[in-house]
């Protein structure tokens, strides 16, 4: 019997195995030509990816629901098949289609055929609306604990509730851009609920907009580049902020360590008809040969502010990289401060929720550089409550929760004598 959507579901199970079983980041698996998506047409690839993300957003609750029906732990692949079917039903999919596909995938598996009956029996016991009353998935302890300490239990639960949902798609627009229908956010980003294929959206070819989370778009607003200025974009790939700076009319020099990621900056610039000088280099050693009017440093970080878009992160990372990242961010910030003209400004930002990669970095930089000061400038649409006492912007997924939230970021504008 042919089961509709079997290939996409089987691929989703493969993706889940790579993330949950092998600890690989989803982006890396998706880009792997030998990965589970190989040979699938674009629509099926998109479906497999959508299903995988949905499962990763609900693993904890779904496992709790399955637990009473499993006398002993089934093989990992069988568990992922069960998780996928429950999530599909939870998302409103037809139960019979999800169950048939689950049974078929297990039946066809090399060592799982004997579990087909169990899968069928367990899934028949799943309630019609399995997500009802399900507690949002908690972040892992290494991350949750410092966040509870920084923001309180209630805020962390609110962050987790936002992370359980499918995030909207935010676009950054150039003046006069042809853009799809959406909600204009107070900060100027356009928010779409219904996404489909990005390249099929109105105005994509014309290049008047690009995808960038509303929170991410605020870093360049804080930098406020103006036409004719020389602006350095350190750690620039894949280039959302490079495009934004270039669109202001400033001359951008964009630096990134990764040649492959810089390729994406180039593609984005071409599509949008914008220009920037691209340099593939290590910002820790690169010498610009000039000083800039303004510098943006979007430093590498734990990316813990982006879990709603990357729900694989909590399953793959264990926090062990954070200490090294904090040291790297401080070193990059000192480099950035040395590349700006007297009287210029530096914006430091990270897409992290961890204070040590944000508020802590700011405090440490002020202690290292007594001539440095934090400038709190007017950014349209920014709620005054988002500013920290020290003058940084702390953005969290639970801000604008009813609208779908925003990525977690910390950003601060530094001026003075460096
Ligand atoms: C948070 S991402 C930047 C996102 C980018 N600014 C944007 O808006 O699309 C951090 C980037 O830092 C780059 N990076 C990491 N270490 C670096 C270094 N030592 N020098 C230059 N770039 C580095 C990474 O390759 C990565 O592309």
Automatic annotation (TrEMBL):
Keywords: Methyltransferase, RNA-binding, S-adenosyl-L-methionine, Transferase. It comes from the Bacteria. One of its GO terms (molecular function) is RNA methyltransferase activity. InterPro entries: MeTrfase_RsmB-F_NOP2_cat, MeTrfase_RsmB-F_NOP2_dom, NusB-like_sf, NusB_RsmB_TIM44, RCMT, RsmB/NOL1/NOP2-like_CS, SAM-dependent_MTases_sf. S-adenosyl-L-methionine binds at residues 235-241, 256, 282, 298. The active site is at residue 351. Belongs to the class I-like SAM-binding methyltransferase superfamily. RsmB/NOP family. This is Methyltransferase domain-containing protein. It comes from Paragemmobacter kunshanensis.
């Amino acid at each position: 019997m042919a089961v509709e959507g079997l290939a996409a579901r089987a691929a989703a199970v493969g993706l889940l195995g790579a993330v949950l079983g092998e600890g690989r980041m989803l982006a890396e698996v998706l880009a792997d030509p030998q990965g589970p998506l190989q040979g699938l047409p674009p629509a099926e690839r998109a479906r497999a990816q959508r299903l995988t993300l949905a499962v990763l957003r609900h693993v904890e609750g779904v496992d709790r629901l399955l637990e009473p029906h499993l006398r002993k732990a089934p093989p990992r692949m069988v568990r992922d098949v069960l998780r996928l079917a429950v999530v599909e039903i939870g998302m409103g999919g037809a139960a019979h289609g999800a169950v048939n596909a689950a049974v078929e995938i297990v039946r066809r598996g090399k060592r799982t055929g004997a579990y087909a009956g169990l899968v069928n029996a367990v899934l028949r016991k799943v309630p019609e609306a399995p997500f009802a009353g399900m507690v949002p998935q908690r972040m892992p302890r290494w991350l949750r604990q410092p966040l509870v300490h920084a923001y309180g239990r209630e805020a962390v639960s609110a962050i987790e509730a936002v992370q359980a949902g499918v995030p909207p798609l935010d676009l950054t627009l150039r003046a006069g851009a042809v853009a799809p229908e959406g909600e204009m956010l107070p900060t100027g980003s356009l928010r779409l609920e219904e996404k489909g294929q990005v390249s099929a959206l109105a105005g994509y070819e014309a290049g008047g907009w690009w995808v960038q989370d509303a929170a991410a778009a605020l870093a360049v607003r804080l930098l406020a580049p103006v036409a004719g200025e020389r602006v350095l974009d350190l750690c620039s790939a894949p280039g959302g902020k490079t495009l934004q700076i270039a669109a202001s009319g400033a001359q951008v020099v964009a630096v990134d360590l990764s040649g492959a990621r810089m390729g994406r900056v180039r593609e984005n610039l071409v599509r949008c008809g914008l220009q920037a000088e691209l340099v593939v280099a290590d910002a820790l050693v690169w010498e610009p040969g000039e000083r800039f009017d303004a510098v943006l440093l979007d430093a590498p970080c734990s990316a813990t502010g982006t879990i709603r878009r990357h729900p694989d992160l909590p399953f793959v990372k264990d926090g062990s990289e954070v200490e090294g990242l904090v040291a790297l961010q401080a070193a990059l910030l000192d480099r950035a401060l040395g590349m700006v003209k007297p009287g210029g400004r530096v914006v430091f930002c990270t897409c992290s929720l961890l204070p040590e990669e944000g508020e802590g970095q700011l405090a440490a930089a002020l202690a290292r550089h007594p001539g440095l000061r934090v400038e709190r400038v007017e950014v349209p649409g920014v709620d005054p409550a988002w500013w920290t006492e020290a003058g940084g912007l702390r953005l969290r997924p639970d801000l604008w929760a009813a609208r779908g939230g925003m990525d977690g970021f910390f950003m601060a504008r530094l001026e003075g004598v460096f």
